[in-house]
UniProtKB/TrEMBL annotation:
Domain of life: Bacteria
Species in which this protein is naturally found: Bradyrhizobium symbiodeficiens
Residue stretches spanning the membrane: none
SMART domains xref list: AAA
GO terms under cellular component: cytosol
Residue ranges of domain RecA family profile in the record: 66-216
Keywords for the protein's UniProt record, in alphabetical order: ATP-binding, DNA damage, DNA repair, DNA-binding, Hydrolase, Metal-binding, Nucleotide-binding, Stress response, Zinc, Zinc-finger
Protein name listed in UniProt: DNA repair protein RadA
Residue window of motif RadA KNRFG motif: 253-257
Region (Disordered): 456-481
Domain remark in the UniProt entry: The middle region has homology to RecA with ATPase motifs including the RadA KNRFG motif, while the C-terminus is homologous to Lon protease.
Assigned protein family: Belongs to the RecA family. RadA subfamily.
Gene expressing this chain: radA
Function: DNA-dependent ATPase involved in processing of recombination intermediates, plays a role in repairing DNA breaks. Stimulates the branch migration of RecA-mediated strand transfer reactions, allowing the 3' invading strand to extend heteroduplex DNA faster. Binds ssDNA in the presence of ADP but not other nucleotides, has ATPase activity that is stimulated by ssDNA and various branched DNA structures, but inhibited by SSB. Does not have RecA's homology-searching function. Plays a role in repairing double-strand DNA breaks, probably involving stabilizing or processing branched DNA or blocked replication forks.
Tagged with keyword DNA repair: yes
């Protein structure tokens, strides 16, 4: 009889070791190694005698048909998935606890079930009564969704194989599933990988679409082995702050659609409400005329989105000034601060800098550099930026403002929301188009924009009153540029 071989597998990255150690050498995490059985269910001697079967090869010139899609009934969800769920596809949805993953899937499955499709919702974390309570709270208790509370993959596959093939299957969540083929505890790397592989095999064989709900780590990454993200067809991330009502559904990977689309939802007492105009929602509570705020005209996928950037620059009492940013890349903020100090003469080494993207949206494109710089300088010199202006443009390390893509779409969205002017790169003036009706302020370098903002304000805390006779000389004042 073969002897069982034990190994220690990292629950964060899946690396295997012969002995236990405190730190994983592959990903650098501490206390993530767990003991698992490394032997498979089939002996090596039997697996090695299996003969392969021949299969047909096809050419690239064959006819290709568009994959049939199943609409979810939610426009924002269909936008992110590329138009609906493809038959036989497997999607992985991740998000923080309590962000609304189960609520979103309950609403989507109820709409699809009401349209006449067979929908199965399998929960490994909640009982059937708990799922019914959520559906009753959302007003969806009359939807013909088939429910079950089960964690055995073999039992799930056997049950779903009987009768008509379901059009959509929801597994909530993959970390609670287990299979008899491996001898590890549910939630371990081996069990998650084996369970996902069995469900993906069932989806490809029957043509049913499967949605896997995945847990996330404290860093926001989907927990479990990274290989699961490579196995599935699409990876969706449900983002948002628990204290805010906005939720963002973002496609991280999608084999059947774009990977830069977002869906915007608003959390209400009756569930998630789709937001058809995110720009109006993000700007609904902006502070008009407040120094340190600038409106950024961005692009998320094919949709232009206007969002407010808020900056606060204040003298520091610490030896090392603080740099805090929410919703933007901290490395981008450090680069913009370095360019402001090196090429524009803006001294920020004695100031704390805080930058926030209002509404809980996360910005990934470098076109927000110009809006962030304008907000920072506005807060430093205590100058109000024009309330009817939008900003977009990429800043190079030399201080030159570089053009960005889809300028006409940004201007059109700004004009639709009532903005009158736009600050944009000089080289983008030709492609901006004259149909937007905006007054364009093209800047070639960041120095020009800084000079315009500084001419309208004064340093925070300064007054126009005459200096006292024994006032401290300017060169000894802390925070002076």
């Amino acid at each position: 009889m073969a002897k069982n071989t034990l190994s220690f597998v990292c629950q964060n990255c899946g690396a295997a070791y012969n002995r236990w150690q405190g730190k994983c050498e592959s990903c650098g995490e501490w206390n993530t190694l767990a003991e698992e059985d490394a032997t498979g269910s089939v002996p090596v001697s039997i697996r090695s005698k299996r003969k392969g079967r021949t299969f047909a090869l096809e050419s690239l010139s064959g006819k290709t048909q568009d994959a049939p899609r199943l609409s979810s009934g939610m426009t924002e969800l269909d936008r992110v998935t590329g138009g609906g769920f493809v038959r036989g596809s497997v999607l992985l949805v991740g998000g923080d606890p309590g962000i609304g993953k189960s609520t979103l899937l309950t609403q989507a499955t109820s709409m699809m079930a009401r349209a006449g499709h067979r929908i199965v919702y399998i929960s490994g974390e909640e009982a059937v009564a708990q799922v019914r309570l959520r559906a009753e709270r959302l007003g969806l208790s009359d939807a013909p969704v088939q429910l079950a509370a089960e964690t055995s993959v073999e039992d799930i596959v056997s049950t779903l194989s009987e009768g008509a093939v379901p059009r959509l299957i929801v597994i909530d969540s993959i970390q609670t599933m287990w299979t008899d083929t491996v001898e590890s505890a549910p939630g371990t790397v081996t069990q998650v990988r084996a369970s996902a592989q069995a469900l993906i095999r069932f989806a490809k064989k029957t043509g049913a679409a499967i949605i896997l709900v995945g847990h996330v780590t404290k860093d926001g990454q989907i927990a479990g082995p990274r290989v699961v993200e490579h196995m599935v067809d699409a990876v969706l991330s449900f983002e948002g702050e628990g204290s805010q009502q906005f939720r963002i559904l973002r496609a991280v990977k999608n084999r059947f659609g774009p990977t830069d689309e977002i869906g915007v939802f608003e959390m209400t007492g009756l569930g998630l409400r789709e937001v058809t105009n995110p720009s109006e929602l993000f700007l609904s509570e902006r502070d008009l005329g407040t120094p340190g705020t600038a409106v950024f005209a961005g692009i998320e996928g094919t949709r232009p989105v206007l969002v407010e950037l808020q900056a606060l620059v204040a003298p520091t009492s610490l030896g090392t000034p603080r740099r805090a940013v929410v919703g933007w890349d901290p490395s981008r903020l450090s680069m913009v601060l370095a360019v402001l100090e090196a090429h524009c003469g803006v001294k920020l080494s004695g100031h704390d800098v805080y930058l926030n993207v209002a509404g809980g949206l996360r910005i990934h494109e470098p076109a927000a550099d110009l809006a962030a710089a304008a907000a920072l300088v506005s807060s430093l010199v205590n100058a109000q930026l024009p309330t009817d202006a939008v900003y977009f443009g990429e800043i190079s390390l030399s201080g030159v403002v570089r053009p960005v893509a889809q300028t006409p779409a940004r201007l059109k969205e700004a004009a639709k929301l009532g903005f009158q002017r736009a600050v944009l790169p000089e080289s983008a003036r030709g492609e901006s188009g004259g149909d937007a009706g905006l007054t364009l302020n093209a800047v070639n370098s960041l120095t020009t924009l800084v000079a315009e903002i500084a001419a309208r304000g004064s340093r925070r805390g300064e007054s126009n009153a005459p200096a006292e006779k024994n006032a401290t000389p300017a060169r000894f004042r802390r925070g002076e540029g």
